[in-house]
Amino acid sequence: MHFFRHALVLVVGLTSSSGGVSRVFSIGIPNSEVIRLAFDAVVQSVMKFVLGNGEGFILLLSCDETSRGAYKLASNISSLAARFVFDRLEEQSFAAFSRLQNDVPAMEGTFVLATKTSSMIAMLFSFVGPAYSRLFVKIMYGPEWESAGVPFLLSMSLFYLQFISVNGIAEGYFNAVATSKAVRGYSMFTFIVMILYMGFGTVFAVYYGPAAIILANALNMIFRAVYCARFIARLNSKKTGQTRTAFVLLKEATPTLGFFFTMAALSSLTLGSERLMKDELHPMHVGLHLLAGFCSCIVALAAIFRFERNYVEQARKVFRREKPAKED
């Protein structure tokens, strides 16, 4: 629908020079500007359509019905976390970036804080979630979907959330500060990455199944996040006169090794708890396994205060700064 709407605007802009149409559809800006903006909108709409449906094309070309169903089910389950957690973080981050455009240090601090928050939440899904994917699928959807490989694909999809979280914040920063020229450059870059993604996914999905599509999606997110981080670093270097690189910016936004090793230990703990379950559907065994997951969440929270002290201090400063504004 958006594609046809943008195409209509483009046609109106092209025909407005004749005089008659321009008097009816006059919108108060030059025709060349209408054409340029509408063309950009059409291109972006086409790219969003292909990106949104690219997985369907790859699945149709390279996977059987069972694999397609398993992939769709795993993707839909993991997308709930992306929709209700990470989308909200991205929206709030974009609003903050738009409000702080003239304050580069504040924008970078917000980027680091938002990216680290999103990454640590994603790491909880990525490291602890796989231990519960098989139990969840078996209880909610039955053993037939378990045997179809949904738990493995769900575990990979949960790991993929890590890349979605970082890319979402980086793109939010980019969209808040990018000029129309920069947006067109990014659109061209994503178009190239999209072609590589579909080619890689189609070829490797034939041999490795839907898991190859998840891997291709992860690489897609990495390329896009690095592009945005590189643009942000170069733009901020011009504004401040201080040299900044994408590597330094992303490194500051990455959780510490202490937190990473804690999450790796919790992953081993929950996977061990899963293997020790003698009867997956026995209430006591399920309860103990869920208790291990709950304790893992508590330990992860404690690890934030132990290993991410700078992050906690920055979060407190932001909270103190925002609280009076809300009260006013």
Can you describe this structure?
- With 328 residues, the chain is mainly α.
- The chain folds into 2 domains: 1-56; 63-327, no CATH class.
- The chain has helices spanning 2-15, 20-24, 31-62, 65-99, 104-128, 130-141, 143-147, 150-177, 180-208, 211-240, 246-252, 257-276, 283-307, 309-327.
- Helix 5 packs parallel to helix 12.
- The protein is flat, with a radius of gyration of 23 Å.
- Mean pLDDT is 82; it is low at 6-29.
- One of its GO terms (biological process) is glycolipid translocation.
- It is found in: Endoplasmic reticulum membrane.
- It is a multi-pass membrane protein.
- InterPro entries: RFT1.
- Count structural domains: 2
Low-confidence stretches: 6-29
Instruction: Based on Cα principal axes, name the global outline.
Output: flat
* Radius of gyration (Å): 23 Å
Strand content: under 5%
* Mean pLDDT over all positions: 82
* Strand elements, count: 0
State the distance separating the first and last CA atoms.
41 Å
Query: What does the largest sheet look like?
Result: none
Total number of helices: 14
Instruction: List the secondary-structure elements in sequence, H or E.
Output: HHHHHHHHHHHHHH
Helix fraction bin: over 70%
Q: From the helix content, strand content and strand pairing, which structural class follows?
A: mainly alpha
Signal peptide: 1-19
Subcellular location: Endoplasmic reticulum membrane
Main location: endoplasmic reticulum
Pathway: Protein modification; protein glycosylation
